[in-house]
């Protein structure tokens, strides 16, 4: 009976033996975004200060879970005047809402579902997963997707004389994460 119990225990725990917890490598990770500007071109930006942890199962070669924080004050669109406006109270309101957070709720095939919180508003979103795999004590992946910024209270805009708007509601996300095994 003891052998059966030990055998069952080893079967149930074997899947977790190969999963490791990784700290996000802040130097080699990037939380990027693009948004349509003036209805004619995309403006790219990133939030440079990224932190978090994720669990990666090397045996199954898959991401198990991820949670992270972005420091909104580190936003960078290569235009300091625009960056200051993005930090201001009429857009991200960094003084009141300094962080954007994400916590996965489910990873299924090549899709990560999770709770994204911006300006105190949390929505469950879906992101496409491109698995980078693991090598030694490093692992990485890319998440891509789209959100509507107005759903998170980021509603500033300006009507153009031509009838369009200065900034589209749709924001494309491109998040590259590399982690170090804890």
Automatic annotation (TrEMBL):
<dbReference type="Pfam" id="PF04264">
    <property type="entry name" value="YceI"/>
</dbReference>
<feature type="domain" description="Lipid/polyisoprenoid-binding YceI-like">
    <location>
        <begin position="21"/>
        <end position="180"/>
    </location>
</feature>
<feature type="signal peptide">
    <location>
        <begin position="1"/>
        <end position="19"/>
    </location>
</feature>
<keyword id="KW-0732">Signal</keyword>
<protein>
    <submittedName>
        <fullName>Polyisoprenoid-binding protein</fullName>
    </submittedName>
</protein>
<dbReference type="InterPro" id="IPR036761">
    <property type="entry name" value="TTHA0802/YceI-like_sf"/>
</dbReference>
<dbReference type="InterPro" id="IPR007372">
    <property type="entry name" value="Lipid/polyisoprenoid-bd_YceI"/>
</dbReference>
């Amino acid at each position: 009976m003891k052998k059966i119990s030990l055998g069952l225990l080893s079967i149930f725990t074997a899947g977790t033996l190969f999963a490791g917890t990784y700290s996000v490598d802040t130097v080699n990770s990037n939380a990027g975004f693009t948004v349509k500007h003036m209805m004619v071109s995309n403006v790219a930006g990133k939030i440079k200060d990224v932190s978090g942890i994720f669990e990666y199962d090397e045996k199954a070669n898959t991401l198990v879970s991820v949670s992270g924080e972005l420091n909104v004050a580190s936003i960078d669109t290569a235009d300091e005047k625009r960056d200051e406006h993005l930090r201001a109270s009429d857009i991200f309101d960094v003084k009141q809402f300094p962080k954007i957070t994400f916590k996965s709720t489910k990873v299924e095939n090549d899709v990560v579902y999770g709770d994204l919180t911006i300006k105190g508003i949390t929505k469950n979103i879906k992101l496409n997963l491109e698995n980078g795999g693991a090598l030694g004590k490093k692992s990485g992946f890319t998440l891509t997707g789209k959100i509507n910024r107005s759903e998170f209270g980021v509603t500033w805009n300006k009507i153009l004389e031509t009838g369009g708007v200065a900034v589209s509601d749709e924001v494309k996300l491109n998040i590259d994460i590399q982690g170090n095994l804890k």
